[in-house]
Design a protein that fits this description.
Layout: E1 12-20, E2 24-31, E3 34-40, E4 45-51, E5 55-63, H1 68-86, H2 91-113, E6 117-124, E7 130-136, H3 144-164, H4 171-174
Antiparallel strand pairs: 1-2, 2-3, 3-4, 5-6, 6-7
Amino acid sequence: MLDFELIKNENIVKKIDVSNKNEFSDTLLLTNKRLIKIKKEKYKTQLNIIPIEDVQEVECNSILPNSKSMIWSITAFLTGLLLYLAFKETMLGILFFLFLISLGIYLIVDHLSSKKYQKLIFKTISNNITIEYTIDKDRLEFNAKNYIQLFFKLRWQLLHENSLKINKPNRKQIFSRYQ
């Protein structure tokens, strides 16, 4: 299933997968130690890996459909009206008007039915490494807020565990020659 091995004591906590049969696959794995993005195309696999403790910032952006289609639909309506009036209500004017009105309606329907996406960007400040993952908002099983909360909960646990495991040398080892 995975093209790589997990490190010792590493478990997959959350997996988000977008795939198109055998041609394309985009997966974001959140383990208890790392954040891994696996992007597969037909003959190519790309892996981006960031340790959880290195991530300092997470952005969640909404990508909405472009509003230019609404402007073009209004322009089509006005142009159709002007051509209708310019040809003095002849058959050619009516055809221009109907054609441009249908283009305007198509653009409005396209704008309203376009998918809305969320883009998660995980950034490290020290290495300037980012992992970007885009997913459509219609997927019911994905909730960006919960995912980010889970990520930072794991990050806090990992940092807290690491701070507890630091073995502080006793004084005799550090200053042994002075005693």
